[in-house]
Amino acid sequence: MADFTGARFTGTDIACIRGQRVLFAGLGFDLAAGGALLVTGPNGIGKSSLLRLMAGLLPAAAGRLRLTPGGDAAAGPAYLGHGDALKPPLTVAETLAFWTRIAGPADNGARTRAVAAAVDLFALAPLARVPCRYLSAGQRRRVALARVVAQGAPLWLLDEPTTSLDDSGVAAFGQALARHRAGGGMAVIAGHGAVGADGAAVLEIARFAGRDVTEPFHRGLLAGASA
Amino acid sequence: MTAMATIIAHDTRLAFRRGADTLLVLGFFVLACVLFPFGIGGDPALLERVGPGLIWVTALLAAMLALDRLFAADFEDGSLDLLILAESPLELVVLAKAAAHWLATGLPLVAAAPVLAVALNMPPPGLVGLLAALLLGTPTLTLIGAVGAALTLGARRGGVLVSLLVLPLYIPVLIFGVAAVEAAIGGSGTGPRLTALAGFLLAALALAPFAAAAALRQATR
Question: To which CATH superfamily is domain A1-77+153-227 assigned?
Fold first, then answer.
């Protein structure tokens, strides 16, 4: 069981610009160890952009993000986007082994145990030797989630994690999330109906969006971004 | 370093299971080389004269065929995001992916070239020169190609665009590659030409990963 005591993830005054449009600005949050953040809002409001920004894939137009991993954990977050990052010819076991080797526990034994636990949790054992091309959408999602769990990262960034999961899949995800948080792990989840996220803070992006781009503050941001 | 080895093993396994890229490149190379005698006639003296250039040009075009898939699949399925977030520098990831791509597409070209050269009536000393020149030259082609593939990521008709971007940059390798083979046939020293090819390779090794990594980061924004 990973221990992320003392982990913390904060953001202050974050702004995001996509295609000359300010998606949101002045957005802030503070996530302590064991905390979860639900990012909600209608389509196109910037939920996915916020998650990519938190992961470091998108540069923030303004503001600061700060991740303290806590414990003896590796620093980086585990990110799950719209893509499942599965290769059709490779088996489920090969996929999990590859990604945990790229971003996961450095120690061989710990990695094997982490993968085995994640495989158990998402009931993937019967599929271990099946090439990913034969998996259904829900099964693909299970593998992608098992990858996130096995990475053992202090922070999970999950974009619509329960898409195409069946009831047992959603339950398994809830269990994984609860365990992760019990160990001090943090999670940011975009989308609706998250399970295992009781006591989670809700971040409604709409509160930070929809401001007129002609406002001097936002004009300044745009000018800064294009300079 | 272990991450690089992991990526090379993963990508070569993928290429091996899929097989399409290797077969496409190799098939094109062999067919194009075999087509030429039909077009220009089977005169052995003529073939001997045009052989080195012909093999190099077709190898160059063949190496380009599979380039657009170098990062495209990773870009589409989200793997690229995870590779960028991984702890090992993206530059090393690029280098590892290029190495795997060369093992799957470049090495088969090098292996097939002597057979085709014999078919084109190349004298035995030329074969050694050809092998050495291709071994030094094709990795450079892959590395330059990686930059082109990264730059055209997400563009429509990326494959065509890669060719236009990358082909002009292949010219120095072509010139010195052919010169090395001709020097080997003529009995003059291949040393300077091979040294030049090695120089191109070192420059590409040093520069291409940075350029490609920068382009990849831009593409995922």
Answer: P-loop containing nucleotide triphosphate hydrolases (3.40.50.300)
Q: CA nearest A132: which of A120, A122, A142? A: A142
pLDDT tens sequence for chain B (221 residues): 688 889 999 999 988 888 888 899 999 999 998 888 888 888 888 888 888 899 999 999 998 888 888 898 888 888 999 999 888 889 999 999 999 999 999 999 999 999 988 888 888 888 888 999 999 999 999 999 999 999 988 777 777 888 888 999 999 999 999 999 888 888 887 888 999 999 999 999 999 999 999 999 988 88
What type of residue is A49?
S
In A, residues 22-81, which contact B (CB 8 Å cutoff)? 52, 55-59, 74-77, 79, 81
Cα angle value B70/A97/B23 (rounded, 5°): 35
Q: Which of B175, B176, B145 is nearest to B162 (CA)?
A: B145
A116-161 pLDDT tens trace: 888 888 888 898 889 988 989 989 999 999 999 988 888 889 988 8
Give the nearest chain B residue to A16 (CA atoms). B221
Chosen for mutation from B7, B8, B10, B80 (greatest number of chain A CBs closer than 10 Å) is B10
> Are B77 and A85 an interchain contact pair (Cβ–Cβ within 8 Å)?
yes
Nearest to A92 by CA among A63, A67, A122, A129: A129
- Interchain proximity A102–B6, CB inside 8 Å: yes
- Tokens read off for A57: 């894939």
Reported as a single tens digit per residue, the pLDDT across A163-187 is 888 888 888 888 888 888 888 888 8
Q: Are B31 and B117 in contact (CB under 8 A)?
A: no
How do the domains of chain A map onto residue ranges?
1-77+153-227, 86-151
* ipTM of this complex prediction, to 2 decimal places: 0.85
Nearest Cβ partner for A85 among B2, B3, B82: B82
Chain B partners within 8 Å of A77 (Cβ)? 85
Residues in A touching B79 (Cβ below 8 Å): 83, 85, 87
Those residues with Cβ within 8 angstroms of residue A185's Cβ, 6 or more apart along the chain or in another chain: A2, A4, A7, A33, A34, A153, A154, A155, A156
Extract the tokens encoding B218. 């831009």
Pairwise CA distance, residues A67 & A70, whole Å: 9
When CB atoms are compared, the residue of A58, A79, A84 closest to B77 is: A84
User: Between chains, do A85 and B18 touch, taking CB under 8 Å as contact?
Assistant: no
